Amino acid sequence: MLRKNLGLFITLGVVLILFGYGCNGYNGLVKSDQEIKKVWGNVETQYQRRTDLYSSVIKTIEGSANFEKTTLKEVMSARASATQVKVDINDPATLAKYQAAQGQLQNAFGRLMAVAEAYPDLKTTKSFQDFQTQIEGTENRIGVARKDYNDAVQQYNLTVKVFPKNILANIFGYKEKAYYQANPGSENAPEIKFDIK
To answer: In 14-95, which ranges are E strands?
Structure first.
């Protein structure tokens, strides 16, 4: 009797092992996907911090008499664009669009800060000085958050591409995610000009 059922027990054992592996593999994919969402949330939080800081300094600068309004309007326009981009971390195109909008905002704000150097009254206000300190820390936090995001994406992408979990990933629709990349042209040294009038 035991011999008759031996084939059934072996088959049942193999099915249980495969089921256990499948559940464990699926749960690992879900955890990796959720980790990326959490880490991306941290990236967005740091960009929001930057946007909030920019808003504060814009108010400070707006209060300065005779400040160059064109540059200020460029920053306000770039800030509005950057906050309207919605990112789907499963869609590399929206990630690239978000990154481009953030780069535009940073560039416009850099021009604003260069122009602000020509206004000694502005540079001496406490809120402006505090802002300069805070923005440096925020830029560092953004760099760390982007690195953490890319680390999480690397771990996730390895999970969905390596055999045999790639089979489960394909079955359940888990696809490779895009990395946060450097802004185009950031490999070149910035051009610095001191001919502010």
So the answer is: none
- Mean pLDDT of all residues belonging to the chain: 80
Q: Which residues of the chain have pLDDT under 70?
A: 1-4, 63-68, 119-125, 127, 183-197
Q: What is the pTM of this model?
A: 0.70
CA atoms within 13 A on the CB side of 55: 10
**Predicted pLDDT at 193:** 46
- The DSSP output letter for 68 is -
Residue 145 has what pLDDT?
93
pLDDT for the residue numbered 78: 83
Cα 109 to Cα 43, 55, 58, 100, 116: the distances in Å are 19, 11, 9, 14, 10
At CB < 8 A and 24+ separation, what contacts does 56-61 make? 56/127, 56/131, 57/127, 57/128, 57/131, 57/135, 60/122, 60/125, 60/127, 60/128, 60/131, 61/112, 61/116, 61/122, 61/128
Structure tokens at 46: 């740091």
How many CB atoms sit inside 10 A of residue 34's CB?
12
Q: Collect contacts of 139-148 with beta carbons under 8 A, ≥24 apart.
A: 139/50, 141/46, 141/49, 142/43, 142/46, 142/47, 142/50, 145/39, 145/42, 145/43, 145/45, 145/46, 146/43, 146/180, 148/39, 148/42, 148/43
